[in-house]
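Methods, example record. To illustrate the input and output format used throughout this study, we show the complete record for Outer membrane protein assembly factor BamA. The sequence lines were provided to the predictor; the line carrying structure tokens was produced by it.
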Amino acid sequence: MKPKLLASLIMGLFSASTWAIQPFVVKDIRVEGIQRTEAGTVFSYLPVKVGETMDDEKASAAIKALFSTGFFKDVRLEYDKDVLIVMVQERPAISKIEITGTKEFPKEQLKDGLKQVGLAESRIFDKALLDKAEQELKRQYYSRGKYAATVTTTVTPLERNRVAIDFTVNEGEIAKIHQINIVGNQAFKEKELLDLFVLTTPGWLTWYSKNDQYSKQKLSADLETLRSFYLNQGYLEFNIDSTQVSISPDKKDIYLTVNITEGEKYTVSDVKLAGDLLVPEEELKKLIKLKAGDVFSREKLTESSKLIGDRLGNDGYAFANVNAVPELDKVNHKVAFTFFLDPGRRVYVHELNITGNTKTSDEVIRREMRQLEGGWYSAEKINRSRERLNRLGYFSDVNVETPAVTGTTDQVDVNFNVTEKPTGSIMAGLGFSSTDGVVLSGSVSQSNVFGSGNYLAVQVNSSKINKVYSLSFTNPYYTPDGVSLGYDVYQRNVDATTSSVSPYTSKTLGGGMRLGIPLNELDTVNFGLSYERTKLGVLDTSPIQYINFVNEFGSTNTTLRGDVGWARDTRDSLIYPTQGTLQRVYGELGLPGGTLKYYKLNYQHQWFYPLSRDYTLMLNGEAGMGNGYGGKTLPFFKNFYAGGNTSVRGYDSGTLGPKDINGNSLGGNRRIVGNAEVFFPFPGLNKDKSVRLSAFMDAGAAYGQDEKLSFGNMRYSAGVGLSWQSPIGPLKFSLAKAFKAQENDKIQKFQFVLGTAF
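The corresponding predicted structure is encoded as:
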């Protein structure tokens, strides 16, 4: 009997008409047309089994189930003498995928993207997925600014019902931002506003920053920066009406247009406080940065709310809500603010949790904590704890979270998550001099030995003039109160016979200990005691002052050296400070018990001030003086020197000041140094804080025993500097022009220091 096609069932899937067959009991099921698919797989999807009755409903369900697997492009049902025949036509399988013409991306990366949309080798081929795959490839290239990229797809049938897919990519050129227009600005010039943007037109460094390539994320950030700028300048009703992004027909140039409405400039008419004032109102008003008569600034408004919230947080109100409600006077363009305070419930800290430290021990971190478990929550103490962790130099990032304790209303946990960074360093210094040639120096240090927080350093200076070998160890928490204890052993050999300094030789062997006592969070007092033995050598060409000193005090001297100092550091960063001060007073004294009796006193004051978001001014002043006592004189090898990359750039190291009859530096018993430097971003890398340029002016001099202090004897220089926290370590360069140089001054225009981390 000829098999009968269940056409009624198939037509029933696509027609509203009702077709019917005579139900029958399935005695057997046969599958035909399969090549790769196992018959068991087909049986598993069939809603009818042997022994069951086949009817319209089950036939329709069977066809739908087999089509939904995606394995087949055609399914038919037939029956012959109570045998159900399932006839299928399989979709081809993907044998291989080839991508040609790609240079911008690795092929494996592109194939991973195709796999995300379902197209991969050994999978079933689907034309709909092929279209998605083409769009995915284009999307990858569009993300790199290659809007002219085209993708041509070739599908080649292979034996055993397989296909090979070839994507031929023509990448085209990267589309660059040709022009950015801001429409509607009146109060500010377009150039001033565009300087706020990260996105820019092509420049000489945009090949590195890629900021001349359009990015939706970067544009959104730039628009928010623009909005913040206007709101901080008083334009309370500022609005970005629309943005248009268009591309040229050749897909090479992108045009951005931003339409804005500036609105009117608003001033503050009044500021009031309301709500539950748990802190005296006068104290809270001092925290409000906006005063009546000021130009409105969203930045100051936000800062005021934060300061008030932090002040309430210092008393344990961790979830205090401070909401500034404006009252607009659109006629007179004034705005009044009422700060509504809702302190909420007072809470205390349940637990301090520390995560992320794989090397540094918990004890090292916990001893920096100023917020204690069981104490009232204090935003100030938590922030101070985070600052102290940052200043350790052990971590690249410190994050703090204060989640509420589940099931309570008056407890929070404080979670510190740290990201450790390499704390060891290998530093190398390199300089050039017309007389000394190449000068090399280096040191190896580890500021977090075995995660203990202890500091260990070995220094080796191998220049032909100064050879230094030293070993230093410091325990910053010798006592639980933070008193530090350190030890030093060192040998310094000086051979000044080939330098710009008056010729002599010395060999110093010494050792000592140091003690640091913190007075508070910012101030530290240091004490030190060491013993040195120095052997001096003079030559016939040495200056008479050196020869007389050796004749009077001998070629071998001992020094019982005492050190004392005070330091106050409020800088916001040790690497790239933008604000704050550093003050240091430190003295050195040759105590009775040694053959040398002298004193040296130094003072340094360094000040950082942010001129703008990107520019920072640094002013530095240093002064030093010294002399002998008890009938002794200041040893000539303890003299002050000026010149070089740590004082007055543009001059050879230590060459400024009194000189002997041969023009070599004698050094002096007094020194003055002043520096003014403006730091700013590298062009094209405004957001990259690891690279900074600077323009500087230096001044300084050293003065002899009988020489009158005079600014007329000082040397000056000006130039540019570059500092880069590079992948191989910190690099610092300077190029300086010396001013008011005398005929016998040693000029050194270019200087740099480099280092690396391990």
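Annotations derived from this record:
The chain has a mean pLDDT of 85.
The first helix runs from residue 7 to 14.
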